[in-house]
Amino acid sequence: EHVLGQRDHYQLRGMSKEDIERAVFWDAVTLDAMAKWRKVHIPIFIVFAVLALGHIISIFLFWGWA
Question: What is the pTM of this model?
């Protein structure tokens, strides 16, 4: 859907058909790569966030430990 909207946008800008096809192809490739990256990045981010919060909470729990 986004890629088709971009195609219309490129046509309105007066780009040649070959340039439009090339731009739409790379937009589609980039969109697919970002979707795959999110599948990897989000779980890694969640693990990091949980570990960071656990670390911060443990600091406050053991702050006055002697």
Answer: 0.61
